[in-house]
Amino acid sequence: MDILERVRRTIRRYELAGPDTRVVVALSGGPDSVALTYILERLDAEGDLRLAGVAHFNHQLRASADADERFCSELAATIGRPFFADREDVAARAKGERRSLEDAARTARHAFFERARVHFQADVVALGHTKDDQAETFLLRLLRGAGVRGLASMHPRRGAVVRPLLGCRRTDVLAFLTDAHASWVHDETNDDLSIPRNRVRAELLPFLGRFNPSIVDVLADEAEMARETAQWLGREAAELAARIGREDQNGVYRLEADGLRHAPVALAREVIHQAMTRAAGGRTVSFAHVDAVLQLVGDAGGGTVDAPGQRVERDGPDVVLWSRPAGQIGRWTPARPAPTSAFCYRLPVPGQVELPEAGLVVSATEASSMQSVDAVPRSGPVAIVRRQSVAGGLSVRNRRLGDRFRPVGLGGAKKLQDFLVDRKVPRHLRDTVPLVVDEHDRIVWVAGHAVDEEFGVTNPTEAVVILRLKMLGGPR
Prior knowledge:
The protein is built from 14 helices and 22 strands. By secondary structure, it is α+β, with helices and mostly antiparallel strands. The radius of gyration is 30 Å and the shape is elongated. The chain has helices at 3-13, 31-45, 65-78, 90-97, 101-119, 131-144, 148-151, 170-179, 196-209, 215-244, 257-261, 265-279, 287-297, 416-422, and strands at 22-26, 50-58, 83-87, 124-126, 157-158, 161-162, 245-247, 253-256, 304-307, 310-315, 318-323, 344-347, 351-355, 360-367, 382-386, 394-397, 404-405, 414-415, 435-437, 443-446, 450-451, 464-471.
């Protein structure tokens, strides 16, 4: 199968373009992008797509960068296509933003791709990555400890970026250029073995090829399987996050710890990763960061994790993510909201009450006996108390000076303030902890934490009230 047909099949398989799709080709001047430019020109001529223009980004990192830009401009003129170029001092960006040169270059380049797409009023931007690039990326991610999402490597299509050459080997590209008597430029940085990708290309892949001559194809297939798995897991995680996550009135993102704890670990990790990535402001969230937050899920007593671009805390029934403000450098403490005003609401039995000050809902339902509620967890956001002990009615309020109660299993009365400190509830959140109280204003349940022993169930045959705590706007 010739390379033109191979590219055509890739485009059709992943729905990268159609007869009316306007495509911009990203041309660096290297062999892969040059071959892609000529291939897309032919596909345009045969009605498979519409080649809208040629785009080149000058990173200003090499002495030959300006010559490369001229080469690309001349190639575009040769095939009669409009040319759009831009440049940026990527080294200065990397230094100013305190990020790696590779990361800064990628960010600048992809921002340019979008500008080029808009400039040409195009639908997609085509990049010249090959199957060899995919294999190299897979190995780099594996060596860095990536999970299934990272091992998915490069996607045939991600947003407006498409990669029509992912089904082609680099040898196919060079053979095509040789047959076409086409020239290209050489990027001397590709010879620098201190760059990890170059070393993987020059040393690791040839070494692995001694064990399996088809190693590039094998690794590319592994990347595709990882991508399919990651896409499925991502959809499942998004659905779970929609049920257990929300942004509160202070712009802080919250996840129900109980929902994470009862999910499969792989799914919980993905939900946490998605939430942390959202809060990270473009910084990389690693396995170790996610794992640290996963430990918070099982630690109802509290705790804090400092991660890229954010701080994550355990707050009663929730895991809370605070995003670092843009431009903030050095140690950082989240700006806490103003103290919560005093609140007190009647809680009907059965029924529920919304607590807008805390962004929570407390509900109460009745059951004839403990035997009828065996499937209900009796910790965290759920508590079960004797129906007779609260027959006079219930209310929900926040803490007041002098509050005391006798937590089940702790063997004596305790100041609520001391209890919340022991449970590592952050100071700024203690006024939002709901307290379910009886008609005499005695604490029945410190919601999400502990029941007073006066109201605990001792006879499994007596009627009970089931109390539940959830986020405002969460599932019914």
